[in-house]
Specification:
This protein is an all-alpha fold and 198 residues long. The chain contains five helices and no strands.
Amino acid sequence: MELDDLKNSWEAINKQVDNQQNLNPQIIDKMTRNKYNASLHKIIYPELIGTLVCFASAVYIGFNFGKLDTVFLQGAGILAILLLVALSIISLLSVRHFNMPADVSKPYAEILKAFAVQKIRFHKFQQINVMLSYLLLVDTIVLMSKFFSDKDISDNKYFWIFSFPLGYIFLLFFSKWVSKKYNNTLRQAEQLLKELES
């Protein structure tokens, strides 16, 4: 019985050694690149979904523009459409370079430098998006009073007292949470790039 166990253990070890020999540097490189792309998709997919939501919201406002019966509300509607389209374009521009695979023929230092430039550009676009989001929040609260209520709530002081602080608090915490998640993902992707060299 002990001889059979020893034989089975020996065969298992031989299989592990054979599997490790099959993991040549090209396969390890490919696996690391797949992990790199998968980690960046954690940023790209939410940004694309956000872009679709912004475009859908702009279309919704455009189709319901007739409900905006004052010049002030019409101006708010036009501003909301412009902001939603701008946010969509900025999101697409921010992730555009991340979707491109790294050129393996370049030296390692150049790949890391290109990634650092992409990361800085991405952060700048995200800062612009956050600033425009605060402006969009004000505009959306103004339009909500017309689109989502059968009665006129523009004279209701409690709506205005609570909607702005609650909206800003939500947007502040949400933008901090998203920024933290994106930074972690970018840090992981950068670490994977460093692993490619080693």
